[in-house]
Design goal:
There is one protein chain. This protein is mainly β and 416 residues long. It is built from one helix and 33 strands. It folds into three domains: 123 residues, no CATH class; 102 residues, no CATH class; 105 residues, no CATH class. The strands form five sheets. The protein has an eleven-stranded antiparallel beta sheet with strand order 6-7-5-10-9-8-13-3-4-11-12, with no helix packed on it. Strands 20-19-18-23-14-15-21-22-27-26 form a ten-stranded antiparallel beta sheet, with no helix packed on it. Strands 30-29-28-33-24-25-31-32 form an eight-stranded antiparallel beta sheet, with no helix packed on it. The longest helix is centred in the first third of the chain and has 11 residues.
Length: 416
């Protein structure tokens, strides 16, 4: 890997240590942008959301404020959706949708908004909980932060003149995303990259440990024989689960530790996420995790320019009576861009796949679907709204025509 670490520099007391790297294409994988505060101050440099998102492939999560696609359904179709999704307590079974039962359909079937940061042109902060997301194609999506921590997070900026600055969300006006320069004097660290071995097999890519730690300067906590350890991930060669309550941590120096006592190394770990090229994100539960072996990341990370202007999902829907409808597809009455995500599980391992990676979707039983990737690989996924009979169905737009097909009538969806 190019861009070898030269030396460490303390940026600010009691804050963080950042790695100063030489010019490297890897630097272009960092989120980079210009932040404007309500006071008119402007800061520019690599950005990090709290202690989490730092790469263009990381996810920005929020909640959509409305679902205009409902306007294309008839009253009977909307009533059928209500009947399917209301339980005895008037709550939606699925965790991916929020419904409020009132006299009209405003506010119903509101979905999560998730996208990789590389698809966003700017964030315009309208309040502590409301944001206008400007996509690279110039379109806007209004979102709020209810249930998500990306809106309201403290934003760290490695300003090119001032160094590390941590900005409160309530003092922000706009965040404009820009291509990362190939040469950065300072960065948040090097990527955590490696191969994760689990019950389903092995996955190689960028690693998020415990859903949070993702760079070499992040720290793994644990204790052994009464001694507390805080080890920078950059010093770790591998981590192996040792039952439910501890992990064997092997350092690059050759030393091994059997650590316990924190959620970094025991069954309180939230899971290990791997971002896999050509697939998407794989979220592996602690119980299914075996070990991870870290290695140098590829020299060419996904930079801002590698995310093209967002495109609409297009393809053909085959119905159970043999009819075929081609055009723009709004999946689950919600996802309409190829950067949006299909969620599903296989043996308790979660898959989060951009529609841009998917070739076809075939509903199977009431609780699963066969997903064929553009790579040719096939996954049978279950246990989520996107791939079960909780799916709200699809809307196909061809010119001025709109056709709605309920999930239980779909034979196959073939994506362009």
């Amino acid at each position: 890997m190019t861009g070898l670490t030269k030396h460490l520099k303390l940026i600010s007391a009691a804050l963080s240590i950042f790695i100063i790297t030489s010019a490297s294409a890897q630097n272009e994988g960092f989120i980079y942008g210009k932040v404007t505060t309500e006071d008119g101050d402007v800061y520019e440099g690599p950005l990090r959301w709290g202690k989490e998102e730092v790469y263009w492939t990381d996810m920005f999560n929020a909640s959509k404020r409305e679902n205009k696609n409902l306007d294309y359904l008839t009253s009977r179709e909307l009533d059928d959706l209500e009947d399917r999704y209301r339980d005895n307590d008037d709550n939606l079974i699925s965790r991916f949708v929020s419904i409020t039962w009132d006299d009209d359909y405003d506010g119903k079937f509101i979905h999560e908004f998730s996208t990789e940061f590389g698809n966003i042109k700017s964030l315009k902060i309208r309040s502590n909980s409301r944001v206008e997301v400007e996509l690279k194609n110039g379109e806007y999506i209004e979102v709020n932060g209810s249930g998500y921590n990306d809106i309201g997070a403290k934003i760290s900026v490695l300003d090119r003149e001032l160094g590390l600055i941590k900005l409160s969300w309530n003092n922000l006006e706009e965040i404009e995303f820009l291509p990362s320069p190939p040469s950065l004097s300072e960065s948040f660290g090097e990527p955590l990259y490696g191969t994760v071995f689990c019950e389903l097999g092995e996955f190689t890519g960028y690693v998020q440990w415990d859903h949070d730690e993702r760079v070499s300067t992040d720290v793994l906590d644990g204790e052994e024989d009464g001694d507390d350890y805080e080890i920078a991930f950059g010093k770790i060669e591998s981590i192996e689960r040792d039952g439910y309550s501890s992990s064997i941590v092997k350092l690059k120096s050759g030393r091994e530790l059997d650590l316990r006592g924190t959620n970094d190394v025991d069954d309180d770990n939230k899971g290990i996420i791997v971002t896999v090229k050509g697939l998407g994100r794989v979220d592996i539960e602690w119980d299914d995790f075996d070990r991870v072996v870290f290695k140098s990341a590829p020299s060419s990370a996904a930079d801002y320019s590698s995310f093209s202007s967002p495109k609409k999902i297009k393809g053909t829907v085959t119905v159970d009576n043999g009819d075929k409808h081609s055009g723009e597809i709004i999946y689950d009455l919600d996802e309409e861009y190829t950067f949006e995500l299909l969620n599903g599980e296989k043996d308790d391992t979660k898959f989060i796949i951009p529609f841009s990676k998917i070739s076809s979707i075939v509903p199977r039983r009431s609780d699963e679907a066969a997903i064929t990737l553009k790579s040719g690989d096939e996954l049978i996924l279950e246990d989520s709204q996107d791939v079960s009979d909780k799916n709200l169905g699809v809307l196909i737009k061809t010119g001025s025509d709109r056709v709605y097909v309920p999930w239980d009538r779909i034979e196959k969806i073939t994506l362009d």
